[in-house]
Prephenate dehydratase
Amino acid sequence: MVKIGYLGPRGTFTKLAVDTAFNGENKQSFTTIPECIDAVYRDEIDIGVVPLENAIEGTVQLTVDYLVHQVRLPVMAEIVVPIQQHLLVKPGFTGELSELSSVYSHGQAIAQCHQFLHSHMPDANMNFTSSTGKAAEMVSESGESIAAIGNRLAASEYGLTIHQENIHDYPNNHTRFAVLAKDKEIIRIKHEAETEKTSLLITLPSDYAGALYQVLAAFAWRKMSLSKIESRPMKTGLGNYFFIVDVNQPYDDVLFPGVKAELEALGCDVTILGTYPVHQIDL
């Protein structure tokens, strides 16, 4: 049986994505994103699912940096899930928002609800946890004057009550999850893919004026649509960056080799991080 790992514990959005996308495969939670990625690399699990990007807060930098600097695993698929953040409390709490002294959640979840928290709970202490599921677990084991930000699955798993629904600042809130594996054939996602995408890692030469412009031109004149270009530090000194580029089409034997050859002629390093289907899931 295929074994799937995910950022846990129970009640995280990653677990929700895994439950929605996959059938009853053996599933295992991990405390951190690196632990989940390492488990795939060491063949302890067959598939790893980790958050990649949120529509409001942007890239989950730990995922990208770990895949680039520590463990190179190909992205085999992408799952896109709508994110609804709720304020969760213990069932015994019936007071006002002002009576809640602390809020616990993952840093991205707290940031996604910034305006609500600023307007309705300005005096509450914000406490960051490794995941929204962990925050719900902590609230379930604590007193009644604290709250967690999480989803309905977290409320159900840990016996919490939704005190306030949909507290995220923007309605069109989605998260992309990367599906990592060594063997693409073992991945069976229940929902049909709507599109395909290819992600590239590009490192620019340090002494080449106008290199970024020419990188983009290599895609533009071939009429290749880019959905994302993002820079991240190489961790080798100030001013040294690599770029993640997402192209809205699958890898082929004509356009992509042409782009790669053209960029390498400029002195760039080009690595294909994955060419994969994108599964949009409605909860």
